[in-house]
């Protein structure tokens, strides 16, 4: 995978700064009491710049870069991998590359997603979209059309397992190895309970 150019790195840095300030303000003031204008001011950008990066206030919590990392990992997984090995490889390799600071940010955003009703609904929508985009390269590996139902159902089952690991991680306030929990959750797909 090629590294992003300067322009893309600057855009990502701005995106992370906006998210960081938003999550901090949500923790201090509450999600509903925090406005886009306050987030923009804290991030030293204009509200219109905020909306160039995020369509809605919910998106500042929900959106992330992990689908792109996982898609790349699915496409580059060794050809002899089974579908489960491909999905496991994509999740674990994507999340093992992020810094501790980013892990802390994921934890804070996950807490918000699980506790704020408006965010729970958006997280569900985002999850459905992620399942579709992750299933497409898996289906292609299997010689099937990108919208193959079985590939979507399989990725959906894997995402469901990962979500249970994430919920446990959030409930323990990040005091567990999230990668090990994800790996164990995915092993349930192959081994059963």
* Largest sheet data: none
Task: Give average pLDDT, whole number.
Answer: 92
Fraction of residues in H or I helices: over 70%
Name the poorly predicted regions.
Answer: none
What's the N-to-C terminus distance? 36 Å
Helix vs. strand class:
mainly alpha
**What is the tally of helical segments?**
10
Shape: globular
List the helices and strands and how they pair.
Layout: H1 6-29, H2 36-43, H3 47-53, H4 59-62, H5 66-76, H6 83-96, H7 100-115, H8 117-141, H9 149-171, H10 178-191
Helix pairs in contact: 1-2, 1-7, 5-6, 5-8, 6-10, 7-8, 7-9, 8-9, 9-10
Could you walk me through the main structural features you see in this protein, from its secondary elements to its overall organization?
The chain is mainly alpha-helical and 193 residues long. It contains ten helices and no strands. The chain has helices at residues 6-29, 36-43, 47-53, 59-62, 66-76, 83-96, 100-115, 117-141, 149-171, 178-191. The model has no long low-confidence stretch (mean pLDDT 92).
Features:
single chain; 193 residues
Summarize this, please?
The protein is 76% helix and 0% strand. It is mainly α.
């Amino acid at each position: 995978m090629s590294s992003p150019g300067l322009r893309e790195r600057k855009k990502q840095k701005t995106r992370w700064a906006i998210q960081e300030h938003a999550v901090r303000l949500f923790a201090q003031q509450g999600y509903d009491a925090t406005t886009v204008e306050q987030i923009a001011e804290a991030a030293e950008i204009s509200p219109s710049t905020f909306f160039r990066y995020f369509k809605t206030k919910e998106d500042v919590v929900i959106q992330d870069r992990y689908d792109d990392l996982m898609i790349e990992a699915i496409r580059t997984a060794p050809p002899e991998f089974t579908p489960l090995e491909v999905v496991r490889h994509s999740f674990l390799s994507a999340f093992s590359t992020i810094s501790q600071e980013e892990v802390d940010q994921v934890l804070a955003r996950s807490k918000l997603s699980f506790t704020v009703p408006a965010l729970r609904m958006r997280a569900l929508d985002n999850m459905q979209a992620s399942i579709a985009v992750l299933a497409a390269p898996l289906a292609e590996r299997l010689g099937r059309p990108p919208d193959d139902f079985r590939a979507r159902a399989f990725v959906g089952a894997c995402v469901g397992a990962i979500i249970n690991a994430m919920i446990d991680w959030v409930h323990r306030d990040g005091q567990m190895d999230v990668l090990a929990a994800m790996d164990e959750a995915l092993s349930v797909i192959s081994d059963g309970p």
